[in-house]
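Justification of resources, computational component.

The compute hours requested in this renewal are based largely on the per-chain cost of generating structure records like the one below. Each record pairs the submitted sequence with a full structure-token output. That output is archived, and it is also reused by downstream analysis tasks.
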Amino acid sequence: MEKINVNDIELAYTRRGKGTPLVLLHGYPLDNHLWDDVVPLLEDTFDLILPDLRGFGESTTVDSPYSMDDYASDIAGLLDQLGIQKVAIVGHSMGGYVALAFARLYPERVSGLGLVSTQVLADPPDRKEARYKSAADVSGNGIGGVVEAMAPKFTSDERLQASARAAMERQQPAAFIGALKAMAERKDSTSLLSAFKFPVVIIHGEADALIPIDRAREVKNAVPHAHLVELNGAGHMPMMEAKEETARALKHLA
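The structure output for this chain reads:
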């Protein structure tokens, strides 16, 4: 992996392929290896940029609180150093929140947007409170409880559950804590949708146990030109559960 310094952190990333620049943002609490299965299906079409979001994978973080805007600023800084002005940007779950923040902060840099197993809504009060409780639990007891609770919610496929568990176990507690608090405080992005004139791809598993597929349908209703792919039988991990369909959908951003 390559690394750059941006916003007082060291940001790690992988770059593969050639074509339209495409940033792939992983979800919580994972790293860029989430996309490993689809990269070979996309690298003939896209110049793929796969960062580890701050704190995750090989990227470092800071002790002070940060936000979705900070994650987005990290990506802008990475693109600046790579000399890339405009990209299609795709986010999975929390990565979708970062992609939406990027589209809000840097609309002139977005050539297309992909939302995978994510939503535009902010947390309601009960969900926000639950995230802070989870952050406190990680601070006091480590990541084990979160890992065990999340693995079966990612997918019903036991082999992929084991892969997701191993990916979560690689991460540092500080990344969990920072991300949980940033997600709890994220802005509602509903008002952004009417401004999306660029291509939009929405990919969602109909069996997603973490974010209901209705959230994807609501985005499609608000962005009529969006390309929505509903994956029968898939859960929260379409890039692992339905890699061919996911790659085919993302090629609408080329």
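The chain has a mean pLDDT of 97. Residues 2-123+186-253 form a domain with the Rossmann fold fold (CATH 3.40.50.1820).
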